Amino acid sequence: MMKVLFVVALTLFAIVHYSTALTCYSCTNCPDPFNPAQPGVRNITAGAGQSCKKQKGKILGFEGVSRTAEACGTNKCEKVSLFGQSSTVCCCNTDMCNGARQTTITTLMVVVIALVIAIMNM
């Protein structure tokens, strides 16, 4: 009985966590290394279906970093190239995650692992 209550509690936690608004950093020409206290960096609320996004690349010889909220997938980094210019785009879905150098493990992944362990031990 205790295991069932544990699984239900974890599931409810995941649902509540993902129903709350996602907060992301937003800036163009962001400081690198990142410092959220610098001028021009602000916190924004992601809209429905959006993730936090960090993009770093070189355009016409100038290197830059931008952070925002955008519909771009979740918890992945990929190299993109457009007109011979390349950049790395990282998307994540935890609060303020686009300030990190890399995406981090998500709460949902922790919940899924915990559910699998709980079910296997029933």
TrEMBL record:
Keyword Transmembrane recorded: yes
First and last residue of the signal peptide: 1-21
Domain of life: Eukaryota
Segments passing through the bilayer: 100-120
Keyword field: Membrane, Signal, Transmembrane, Transmembrane helix
Keyword Transmembrane helix assigned: yes
Record's protein name: Protein sleepless
PANTHER family named in the record: ATILLA, ISOFORM B-RELATED-RELATED (PTHR33562), PROTEIN QUIVER (PTHR33562:SF28)
